[in-house]
User: What shape does this take?
Amino acid sequence: MDGNESLTNTPVRPRWLPWLGWAGLVIFVAAQVVGFVISPPERDMGHLQKIMYVHFPAAIMAFAAFTIVFVASLLYLWKRRERYDLLAASAVEVGVVLTALTLALGSIWARPTWGVWWTWDPRLITTAILLLIYVGYLAIRAFTEDDDRRARWSAAVGILGFLNVPIVYFSVRWWRTIHQVQSSPETVDSPFVLALRLNFLAFVLLLIFFVGSRYHIARLERAAHARREERALGGAIHV
Assistant: This one.
């Protein structure tokens, strides 16, 4: 795939990556302390509203992860560089986890608010479809043996699947839905802003950390695979 890159060299993890992860974790813990201990209960929903502090940033960071997938997939089809394929795959794994977390927290929030764990609301349906698309992406990678075919098919799914991201985001505005319109630090009352901003910062740092860490692991796996192939070919030629 990458004719001008050596896959047998052991990739080096950036030194700043672990520090970024620790910073994200510390800020995440601080955000929960602010949100669940210091932040007051909401007038109508009480403490249940505090799910928003994690639910909303998780959803936005899932969109960010799939945006990385979209850009990396386009770059792979254009440049045919393996690193773009590995970056896209790494971002998908993180995005799938964040999307699943978003749906789980949404269901927990919905049960006391709407009276059901799940309802066929446009926002929920489109989010579930988004999750299934990228689970399908991972299935393609798991069951396709040819490297080039796997990368091309994955890139196609990564690009087409991204078309659902704006549909999910704008679904509460385009269709009749019981799901509330998106919140942001500018649209919530000031007592809740600090916890929301801290969670956003924590999720941004953790997103970069997890995608970067998974990308580094993927490069290590490819380098190890390339070394095994090189030794196998060397042994065959020697015989």
Remarks:
- The CA atoms of residues 110 and 142 lie 34 Å apart.
- The mean pLDDT is 88.
- The chain is about 75% helix and 0% strand.
- Helices lie at 16-38, 52-79, 82-114, 122-143, 147-162, 164-174, 190-238.
